[in-house]
Amino acid sequence: MEKRIASIHRVTKETDISLTLNLDGSGKCKTNTGIGFFDHMIDGFARHGLFDVELTCKGDLHVDDHHTVEDCGIVLGEAIKQAAGNKKGIKRYGNFLLPMDETLVMCAVDLCGRPYLGFAENYPVQKIGNFDTELIHEFFYAISYSAMMNLHLRQIAGENSHHIAEASFKAFAKALDMATQFDERIEGVLSTKGSL
After folding, report:
1. What are phi and psi of 153, to 5 degrees?
2. How many Cα atoms are found within 13 Å in the side-chain-facing hemisphere of 19?
3. Do the strands 116-120 and 150-157 form a parallel or antiparallel pair, or are they unpaired?
4. Kindly report the CA angle at 19 between 2 and 37, in degrees rounded to 5?
């Protein structure tokens, strides 16, 4: 089996990002974005999806965290798309219902080649530490469009913003892991059109 690894370097006037993603990893993560809470979320994504992730970002944090978080989402989405390759033999769909204390978050993904984000989460506070909770939507929106995937996140229960955010990143990881797994019964791609 070919290694499903993607390495991307993206430079703009706002961010300089290097990311390597291994879909068939073991949950190893090295991340330095300059945003502690965001690094914590990426670590949870890698560990619970069993992806290996190396991510560094030098962003314009003197402005705010927006460009760093959004652009990391763009690059991660591109890496997912690149590492998944032609998608032959993979399950394509994945979903996970993740509990975290009082919080329950559902995530469903379809690696269909069509971008869409359905996002229904309510964060009781605007900031987790210094991190703007509205950036969580921006991150997942960027992933869905650059990876060309359908991505749905639904908060079913939850009162603690940290728990809601962490459950979202972990649920996404578990759903993506499921969607990228191979099934020997699948010949070609799982589509009546013959392509994804």
Report:
1. -125, 130
2. 31
3. parallel
4. 130
Residues 26-56 as b or e (16 or more Cβ within 10 Å = b): ebebebebebebbbbbbbbbbbbbbbbbbbb
CA 153 to chain centre: 11
118-164 per-position pLDDT tens digit? 999 999 999 999 999 999 999 999 999 999 999 999 999 999 999 99
Do 189 and 195 touch, CB atoms closer than 8 A? yes
Measured CA to CA, the distance from residue 83 to residue 186 in angstroms comes to 19
CA distance 147 to 79: 8
Q: Which of 123, 88, 132 is nearest to 103 (CA)?
A: 123
C-alpha distance from residue 110 to each of 44, 114, 157 (Å): 21, 9, 23
DSSP one-letter code for 132: E
Residue 1's pLDDT is: 65
Residues 6 or more apart whose CB falls under 8 angstroms from that of 24 comprise: 1, 3, 4
Report pLDDT digits (tens) over 152-163.
999 999 999 999
Torsion angle of C-alpha atoms 22, 115, 146, 170, degrees rounded to 10: -40
Classify residue 169 as left (phi > 0), alpha (psi -120 to 50) or beta. Answer: alpha
For residue 45, what is the DSSP state? H
Contact (Cβ atoms closer than 8 angstroms) between residue 144 and residue 74: no
